[in-house]
Amino acid sequence: MNGAKSIMNGNTMQVDRISELPDHIIHHILSFLPTIEVVRMCLVSKHWKRLCYKVTALQFSEFSMGQNLTQRNFPTFLRFFYLLMTRDEEPLVSKLKLDLCRFTRRSIALRSWFNFVLTNRSDVLANLKELDLCVETSDCGRYYLLPKTVFRLRSLTLLRLCGVMLKGLEFVNLPCLKSLSLENVQLDNQALHNLLTSCSSLENLLLKEIVDFWPLNVSCSSLMSLKIIINGFFTSKVNVEAKNLQSFVFIGSLGKPSLKFLSTCETIRNLSLCRANFRSDKGLQSLLLKLPFLERLALDKCFFRKDVTICGPHLKHLAFIGDVIMSKGLETIIDTPNLVSFSFEGYVEPEFSLIASNPLKASIKLYRREFEYDTHWYSDLLNFLANFDCFRNVNLQVVSEKVYIYTYTFLCYYFYLIPGYLS
Q1: For the whole model, what pTM was predicted?
Q2: Quick one: which of 67, 296, 298, 326 could link to 317 by a disulfide (CB 3.0–4.6 Å)?
């Protein structure tokens, strides 16, 4: 069959078509496999052993596959891993992923090997484009000290670090880096500044649970996408300066940190804020005035002290998620002439006003109340739903049969919608 190898298994003919694929396609397939599986493939035949020795993507996760490595066979695996990593001939390794526990013999051996390669054989990493390193931190807050050589790998385009400590980043040379992810990393503002200013091609940045420095200052002219996630109790400020930023996702902490944009962030088109703190009465309004091209805005559990006004000539998609300002009894005014879709998830808010020229779709999910539904609540509901009479399609989700019957009758009468529009 076209030169494909055939094996008889009882009365069934099994054909090995994978071996007939071109080498570069097999290498591409092997790049998606954990390295321990690649090691096993070497036992199939001499042909497969030759192919496996040329794999360019190495990955090892002690959490998902560590149980397959015993004290007896781990040295063999580590020796193979080292041979693949330090080979001098082409192709060189282009992708490396390590996911390690903190205190095990295997993880300590792999970290020692990784440090040795970075310190003494950095030449074999000349073609490394993606590095994903995650080390489990100890209960006492000890972090893995990452060798500085990592920040001089000029070919890197993607770098993800988790559970490491970054110190003394005076010299960083990552001209090709486009995506940077720092999760549970210990560093200070100066180290972050040196890192960002030395990455002239950086486009995507994730900062999650950064340790030991506040306020958080992010400044990078090439940045296009930024995501900041803060857990725990935190009340300091977050300052962002990125003149080419187009998408920003901010997930704050229980302390609801205040968010400050500089005027250079006016190119943002997609903005999502969760647990952000707007202390002044014009906090959100002044922020939106600096974002003339904003098209998408999502507010989730944000804190406001005063009434809120949302105006945006280019705003097309707006979402209120969770208990944003609705439980505070504040007035909300939304004036968005080009609004296309609106999502609301929370409690009924009587002091709510929405102005839109020709919106298409509204999605509303009302939370369950802890007390009895009375006439005041139904009146507030009527005033609230009246804001959506200009929408072509309204999707309403309620959790009470009484509310459903009332709102169904009200919508059919007020909007002249057929029953199929309601869900």
Answers
A1: 0.79
A2: 296
